[in-house]
Amino acid sequence: MLDDSKPLFVAVAEQIEDGILDGTYAEDGPVPSTNELAAFLRINPATAGKGLGLLVDAEVLIKRRGIGMFVAPGAREALRQRRRLAFEDQYIAPLLREAEQLGISPDDLARMITKEFAR
């Protein structure tokens, strides 16, 4: 399912990234073509192509002329690293600011997180 809160081509790129991270698309393996993505997602092929183009520009995918798009070697780890940094900025930093405002110590916060993981 595509995320409606962001541009469609970005959501397409993130869906492919998710597939790389979860092993659906292996490194050096093929990803769906622009037309396959467009048909499956029921979107304009130009939009699907733009999403794939983002990943080519980010060196997550490589084009093999006449063959298709393939996951670049090392793409999975590069995506993990990029998303870990984004996770820290989007979730951890605000969490720590809020915890500080509420007087929650780092130890208490760690206990809360550990408790939540156990659920």
Automatic annotation (TrEMBL):
Q: Which GO terms describe its molecular function?
A: DNA binding; DNA-binding transcription factor activity
Output the PROSITE patterns linked to this UniProt entry.
HTH_GNTR (PS50949)
Keyword terms, alphabetized: DNA-binding, Transcription, Transcription regulation
Q: Does the keyword Transcription apply?
A: yes
Task: List all membrane-crossing ranges.
Answer: none
Extract the coiled-coil ranges from the record. none
- Domain HTH gntR-type per the UniProt entry, residue ranges: 6-74
Q: Does the keyword DNA-binding apply?
A: yes
- Which Pfam families does this one have? GntR
Cross-referenced InterPro entries: Tscrpt_reg_HTH_GntR (IPR000524), WH-like_DNA-bd_sf (IPR036388), WH_DNA-bd_sf (IPR036390)
**What SUPFAM superfamilies would the database entry show?**
Winged helix' DNA-binding domain
User: Entry's Gene3D superfamilies?
Assistant: Winged helix-like DNA-binding domain superfamily/Winged helix DNA-binding domain (1.10.10.10)
PANTHER family annotated for this entry? GNTR-FAMILY TRANSCRIPTIONAL REGULATOR (PTHR38445:SF10), HTH-TYPE TRANSCRIPTIONAL REPRESSOR YTRA (PTHR38445)
Official protein name in the record: GntR family transcriptional regulator
